[in-house]
Design brief:
mainly alpha; 11 helices; Ribonucleotide Reductase, subunit A; single chain
Length: 271
Amino acid sequence: MPAFDLDSYVGRSRAVDLSAIPWAEVSRYPVSAEMIRTLRYMQDVESHTIIYLRSLLATRAVDDPDVATFLACWVYEETFHGLALARFLEAAGSPLAPRARPRGQETLAKRFEAAATAMVSKAWADFCAVHMVWGAINELTTLTGYRRFAAVAGHPVLTDLLDRIVLDESRHFFFYYRQAELRLQHRAVARVARFLVDRFWAPVGSGVEADAEVEFLATYLFGGPEGLDAARKVDDTIRRLPGFETAELLEAWMDRRGRSDGGRRNGHHHH
């Protein structure tokens, strides 16, 4: 894989161009309840980026100047993804209610998590490697989810918007993946990173959204042969990282989901 050219990435970093989207056309095409539900989920996840960043800033990730520079662009771009999705919901006639932030219980859990993360990272300088693998898995899952959403929803304006977001996400993914590749060369680092991913990784939004929403999204985006194929591709890509050759991620998570609801998944489709 070629090196990630940080200078040219930073030079090209822009907010998603919202003025180029034909918002007035949104309501000319059907917008299903499933689409609205998916958009709300994705919007919520994107707008949580800033909370996630807060816990990252307490870690040694920012000791690395390249990573610090990248994160500055990353949070800027992600914030605009959240705004773009909110704008689509508004154009579709389902605007988001102003959100009461922060949600008490979640904040406490998140604060604890941030403190734990900071402790682990102080104890272990190679925490950055874990953060990079984690970032790579999440960006790849997200951009795959966006591509699936465009395919499943078949709404031309949404597809245009998601294509633009995917462009950003694939650059983010490339940065994380390249960094992970370099940092996992050390066997000991790869072992710890793998242990933490095996134990704690769950798809984006799992800790933030209600389980029912995560289930719905998994079925809507990754149910059916094409969805499963997309999930497999995510796993195959991550398995090319040192120490992750046998990692079980998205597909295994989908399997567990399918089993845990006793094969009820087929009942979820509202046509």
